[in-house]
Specification:
Order of helices and strands: HHHHHHHHH
Number of helices: 9
Number of strands: 0
Distance between the termini: 48 Å
Strand content: under 5%
Structural class: mainly alpha
């Protein structure tokens, strides 16, 4: 018979997995990413004639600007307002707020970032006989700021809005949720990879980097659908930070 301690451990793990998938934890766990990105990118752009920001951040600001005058912090304010709305909506669910759960999200994401990048990189290297290695275009401080911003804003655009929207659409179109999950994840990953080559600031197209981004995006889609926004955002941000700091060689 299983011991009472092992049953208690399973109950604690189940409580952690359930709580950290919620919108409440998704919002609160990514607040540090929001603050760090906005502060660091403001410092990086101070006095610069050519300020830089994450593409997904710019797209969302342009959408917000359609409904009012643009302001430097307007998008951050919109994100915070939506997050507060989520907290209010979920307050009746009695979601436990525990510091160790937030630490668990970061630790879990740190492991995923290493495992996913290593697995996807090895798969791409096996096919193309080379590990894709996009070049950094900015100084270390700016690159770290952009890495954090990618984790937050790209996950908002490509996971929450795109994959989440596709899942709702396909769930309505198809009879089973599994089909909706798979279709949303695959199509979302293709769009996520493709947009990196669009526009004047897009990268030159290369099949190996496209494949890497597709597979990496697919892994992030799975994380988002199974583990929620917080884990997906931190995994993306930490992968980009690892890359910037040369962890992958």
């Amino acid at each position: 018979m299983p011991s009472s301690s092992s049953a208690a451990d399973r109950t604690l793990r189940s409580a952690y997995w359930a709580a950290t998938r919620t919108g409440t934890y998704g919002f609160l766990s990514t607040l540090p990413l929001l603050v760090a990105y906005e502060v660091m990118i403001a410092v990086a752009n101070y006095g610069s004639g050519r300020p830089v920001r994450i593409g997904a951040d710019v797209w969302m600001k342009q959408i917000v600007a359609l409904f009012g005058g643009p302001a430097p912090w307007v998008l951050a304010g919109v994100v915070v307002a939506i997050g507060i709305g989520i907290l209010v909506y979920e307050r009746g669910s009695n979601i436990p707020l525990r510091a160790r759960y937030f630490a668990g999200i970061i630790a879990e994401s740190a492991v995923y970032a290493l495992l996913v990048a290593g697995l996807v990189g090895q798969m791409v290297a096996a096919v193309f006989a080379a590990w894709p290695s996009p070049q950094m275009a900015h100084d270390l401080w700016t690159q770290l700021a952009l890495s954090i911003g990618a984790g937050l804003y790209e996950e908002l655009v490509f996971r929450v809005l795109l994959v989440g929207g596709l899942f709702l659409l396909f769930r309505w179109m198809f009879s089973g949720e599994t089909t909706a999950y798979v279709a949303a994840a695959v199509i979302g990953a293709g769009i996520f990879s493709f947009v990196h080559y669009v526009g004047a600031l897009g990268d030159p197209f290369a099949l190996d980097s496209f494949t890497f981004r597709f597979l990496f995006g697919l892994a992030l889609n799975v994380l988002f659908l199974l583990r929620g926004f917080g884990v997906a955002a931190w995994t993306h941000a930490l992968y980009d930070i690892y890359f910037t700091l040369g962890v992958f060689g």
